[in-house]
């Protein structure tokens, strides 16, 4: 595993042999910090020919509307073109964040991503490894 980003807001890793990118939010993240972390993750995803992403969003809250829009316009085309197939998501602890992310699970499922929601990061990783 290689660390791509590591700061007080987020850590992003790539597991090249497992074809997995993983992020863990350490606190509420938005704007440039959020976007830079996801884009650096997407770059590593493409570079290592990954197909799987693990999102540990327990410490985050609802995404801001402008970050959601950015994700759909900028990040989504890049990650889909890179071959995203499987997504394990650990929902935010806050209910408003959970509702937000459940909409994204539906969106990406409709786009063909095999998305599953977990409460335990070890279970999420194990599931991704089986895909």
Describe the 3D structure.
The protein has 131 residues and is α/β, with parallel strands linked by helices. The protein has one domain (2-130): Transcription Regulator spoIIAA. The chain is built from 4 helices and 6 strands, in the order βββαβαβαβα. Strand 5, helix 3 and strand 6 (114-118) form a beta-alpha-beta unit. The longest helix has 17 residues, at 31-47. The protein is globular. It starts with a strand and ends with a helix.
Task: Set down the secondary structure blueprint.
Blueprint: E1 2-6, E2 10-15, E3 20-25, H1 31-47, E4 52-56, H2 65-81, E5 86-90, H3 95-110, E6 114-118, H4 121-130
Parallel strand pairs: 3-4, 4-5, 5-6
Antiparallel strand pairs: 1-2, 2-3
Helix pairs in contact: 1-2
